[in-house]
């Protein structure tokens, strides 16, 4: 068992549940459902994420958990979803030997916390068993604490929310075992040996067993220790092991549609679209000084009318004002209007605020720089030359998951009416 | 039962299976698998598509079959997928009374053929039964021919291919009933009355029953006629009815992953991404005259190197040459390079070729007009004025599902090296 490069800081940075409700990118901890302090009611909780699959159903060579979604490996989104839940103390990821180095560099690159790595087995059950051993404290070299409750979750279900994790953990604490379920999408049939319909199952009486699941650590660890080789080799369902070997009838907890598992190529497309939607809920218009504030408000108005399903705010990036940081947590899209200056100073300032917020660690942040000019006064070529720094800055920013691009807006005579601007000249600045 | 506005032409326009193999947008009929002429082996085939669902699982008000994907209702893609199969004679769609008018205008707008409409019932089974009655010839006012085999397919499975339709129909002809199946993605569990796990099913011994399914018409019609009110109200599986009431054990046919059913919001995202992928497999570079051919080849080379997973071709839109039409069937993305002319004549010609090809009826076609200019010689404002027609033409074209946009390329001195062009000025021309 190996520790990730950044395991278990005293104060995790991305913890949702420990923070105040306002200004959060994600729903805060549901106090009404679970009392004031979940940690004290739950006891110690750890998680095991089997990530040793080869993704054969995806039809691609890369295992699906390592497939890139918006240029970032899928598993990184799942880890982020788990680690922003404060009360999950350790997260053990099981990875095959050949992917261990790749996994280590993902943890490093995206700054994941509280992650430990264990070697995956040849099957899903063997991988989970290895993850549990890493937490059991009875193995040589184990550095982790044996938890009271352990969550088992798939590396390829990136949209798990704190609410369902908590409900499953509380149910497991009470009943020894619990798992998320969903209604069946298709009827399930049982084929005969010669490939004909033997019988079909009543959809109303069956459910799809999804993830996350959670168990008393002692229950599931005992089940795996007693488990037959046949079950380890051909079984897939942890709830079934707890039932068969420890006689625990798992509590089934209704899950949400976004628990779905990325299995096929179309699921990767869907995951990308869902992530894009999450980061497209809000646009923040940024101007550099108080003097330009009215321009910012005008653009804000136009955008609000044009994109009426999206929240639009505006703020001033002033040296004396710190309030821009209040917007950072909620917003992944920024439009920065520059009426006067062609310099890079303000843009660099915004980029460093964004970076400090650790916002780009979760999803890419889009910053569009709008530079206004009047080409009857300033020649186009000259204006472009003044803005050549955008290209270099965009290259730098991309490495930190900020996608910077520039728009040159020809406003002819007046900037008062953005909606009447007839030609927009877009300078392609995002480097390859 | 009502006939759609364009029902049953003598020679359907979009028929894939009847055409030569080369130049097809979709896989041609698999001759090796099914013999030279499927029609003669299959007998008469019709299809029933229940489209009366309310889409409650989608979490939106619009029933999912009418949700728009790339601005076109989902059901229109499914109808297109069915009607390009020549040997399906009639397609009966069952729609609720309140959506009948909307459905009729979809058929009109997208030029669907061989479609008849029937009123949906309160449940899926009642809707299918109504569709079958429309084909049974024993009902008053019926204008359709009673088929030998009937396909039942979902309106929300748009990616069905001719190959699986044929395999299911041939199996139904032999065994009386047949249906596509897929491996289970999740384990299926049976909950006890108090919401605990009672038992879980062996994944290896079960399959998900998907669509399409097919039946001897007499078998499934008899099953529905004998069917209990309870089954009509609460049942969902047609294969089960054929088994229960006509003792036909359906042949189960392994389907492909793209048979999946659009059920949740993420499925709509996935459908959109899949359609975009289908239309992004190839780019055709078009130049106006033989004189500009070398420029076209240069751009073709650059694109081929930059986008190495996409097929790139080039052609000349010459008055004397008709060979552009050979490219039309395979390609949804066109880049038209204009080195000299700023006129609209050539663009209008290309648009009318595209329209005649009926290509935009299936998916949107993207045409990017690249106009080259040297802003040290021609002022930007003057060049833009010369190209104002693009905006009007784009508005017209959009109504016919062609997305036209313009790019002004500043090439300074030479056009020989496209890859060295440092600034690309994009004119936003697509109207709202």
Number of E-type strands of chain A: 18
Question: For the largest interface in this structure, which chains are involved and how many residues does each contribute?
Answer: A-B, 68 and 68 residues
Average pLDDT score of chain A: 80
* Quaternary structure type: homodimer
Give me the Rg of chain A, rounded. Answer: 25 Å
Number of domains of chain A: 2
Strands of the widest sheet of chain A, in order across it, are 1-6-5-2-7-11-8-12
CATH superfamily of the largest domain in chain A: Spore Coat Polysaccharide Biosynthesis Protein SpsA, Chain A
According to CATH, what is the class of the largest domain in chain A? Alpha Beta
- Residue fraction in strands of chain A: 15-25%
